[in-house]
Write a structure and sequence with these properties.
about 525 residues; alpha+beta; Rossmann fold; Arc Repressor Mutant, subunit A; 3 domains; five-stranded parallel beta sheet; four-stranded antiparallel beta sheet; about 35% helix; elongated; Phage resistance protein
Length: about 525
């Protein structure tokens, strides 16, 4: 956009646009924000500000905002440009003390850095676009309150419809000489376009990408414990891609389970080479107050939310957080020095754990479990390092950071498998192995429920529970959930009694085999 075009656009916004229209939302701040646009003055390529036919060079120390759309750098002052009075009038400028945040945002939109697609704001200055939510706007420009900013900027877009510096391909991934179409599920042998910003841009030649598929598949077949887990793990990468770009609603989260040092971490490093990873602490998200709001702020701009070194994955509070991340589109958040705003929950949650995983049946439609093989108990550190060496070399660089040349094989294999099974996500049922030291009450329940359909809580059962758990009802619920048992009400001899029955057959059977 030229200097004159910026001036014309600002003039249209300040004098030729009805800001009272509902196109600009219902914020009471519209008039105040509009007022900020009057004093934006663009500096031309010669370093001058203009007033009709007169020009005045701007001193370097007076330049107040420098920005770029990726192709051209623009400079601005915020203040007034006028002519002196008298016999020999000449141009002069006077700058304000600050350049307002909203004025900076509008300037960046005018020069084509940002555009809207389906109501969502994107930064399209680069080969790979970035999604911008309320939290990002607030953090970048320093707004104290940003809830109304995006709707006003959308109103400006509807009026001006500024041509972005790059067009947006929301559902395509570009390589050096190929395109992955996430809408048609195709790998296309074509070069990326020069004036397009893609969902992802991987600087990888097609030949290298195709060669990486073999070792990615070999790795999964080597470390994954069973066919159902292999199905889930193979589909995971393409699912994250489709959810993160917005083509598919988010409905699921992933839990990878095994003992220590089994390849789970390496696989998540590889996936983080494909997607923007954010680290999350589930326990922090469960708390109240500022600490939790700050933890939610970490989700801004993320695509893969990785939770490692967590506690046991069970209980109502944990399941509540898992549901929010798996299904909600946004959540309130707050960073230090800012007011509350909303972050887009575009990330797919991936949990890496060696702790107990015992979720209720309510999570069956959301959880996707992946069981990794435990390493041999007598394996030495040297033997384990030798076993994984070629995979570390394939998927990471010398500093253990993801190497896209190897990581992309997981995405291409995932695409191939997705097409092979009919372009649907068929998540297979997996009951991960929990290495739990069962207490006396759990053993007694397992042995009894092998013989009968339910057990009534009588005096004997109540006394056993009291000896093991005392009056801790939460501990009782946790113990039942761990072995796949639930409590329910049952009429016995005309009285309502508490009873116990199997709720998760696969989980119960895993302990049945050990303790029958």
């Amino acid at each position: 956009m030229t200097t004159n075009e910026i001036v014309e656009a600002l003039s249209k916004l300040t004098t030729g646009t009805d800001w009272g229209s509902f196109d600009f939302g219902e914020s009471v701040m519209k008039a105040e924000l509009r007022k900020q646009l009057f004093k934006i003055k663009v500096i031309d390529d010669k370093g001058q500000v203009n007033y009709f036919t007169e020009s005045k060079r701007v001193e370097d120390e007076d330049i107040m905002y420098i920005t770029t759309n990726g192709r051209k750098t623009y400079r601005f002052i915020y203040g007034e440009v006028k002519l002196t009075t008298g016999e020999d009038p000449h141009i002069y400028y006077k700058v304000e003390s600050t350049f307002p945040a909203f004025a900076k945002l509008v300037v960046d939109y005018l020069i084509g850095s940002y555009t809207f697609s389906e109501g969502q704001l994107y930064d399209v200055r680069f080969k790979q676009f970035r999604m911008i939510d309320e939290f990002t706007i607030q953090a970048k420009y320093g707004f104290k309150e940003s809830s109304h900013i995006l709707e006003i900027l959308l109103g400006i877009h509807n009026v001006l419809n500024i041509k972005p510096i790059n067009f947006i391909e929301q559902f395509k991934i570009a390589g050096s000489d190929f395109i992955i179409d996430l809408e048609t599920n195709e790998l296309l042998e074509e070069y990326p376009k020069q004036n397009v910003s893609y969902f992802k841009f991987y600087k990888v030649p097609l030949e290298v990408a195709l060669d990486s598929k073999a070792i990615a598949e070999e790795f999964l077949k080597t470390v994954i414990a069973d066919d159902n887990s292999f199905n889930n793990a193979t589909l995971q990468a393409y699912y994250i891609a489709q959810v993160a770009c917005g083509i598919r609603p988010k409905t699921n989260f992933f839990i990878s389970k095994s003992g220590v040092r089994t390849g789970k971490g390496l696989r998540h490093i590889a996936l983080s080479g494909l997607f923007k990873k954010i680290d999350v602490e589930l326990d922090t998200l469960k708390t109240n107050g500022f600490e939790a709001l700050q933890a939610w702020s970490m989700f801004s701009g993320g695509e893969m939310a990785l939770a490692t070194e967590q506690g046991d994955i069970q209980g109502n509070s944990t399941e509540r957080i898992l549901k929010i991340i798996a299904t909600e589109k946004s959540h309130v958040a707050r960073a230090i020095g800012q007011n509350q705003s909303f972050v887009n929950l575009s990330s797919v949650l991936c949990v890496d754990t060696n702790r107990t995983v015992a979720l209720s049946d309510e999570m069956d439609g959301r959880k996707v479990l992946i069981q990794f093989k435990d390493r041999p108990k007598d394996e030495t550190d040297i033997e384990r390092e030798k076993f994984f060496r070629k995979y570390w070399q394939a998927f990471t660089d010398r500093n253990k950071n993801p190497d896209i040349y190897g990581c992309i094989g997981f995405l291409l294999n995932s695409l191939d498998y997705f097409n092979e099974i009919g372009q649907e996500y068929y998540w297979k049922n997996v009951e991960v192995f929990n290495d739990i030291d069962l207490d006396d009450a759990q053993v007694a329940l397992i042995n009894s429920l092998l013989k009968v359909d339910y057990i009534v809580r009588d005096g004997v059962v109540a006394e056993l529970f009291n000896q093991v758990y005392g009056k801790n009802r939460r501990a009782i619920g946790k113990a039942l959930q761990e072995i796949g048992v639930e409590s329910f009400d049952k009429w016995v001899d005309g009285n309502m009694k508490t009873a116990y029955r199997i709720s998760n057959k696969d989980r119960f059977k895993s302990f049945d085999k050990k303790h029958r």
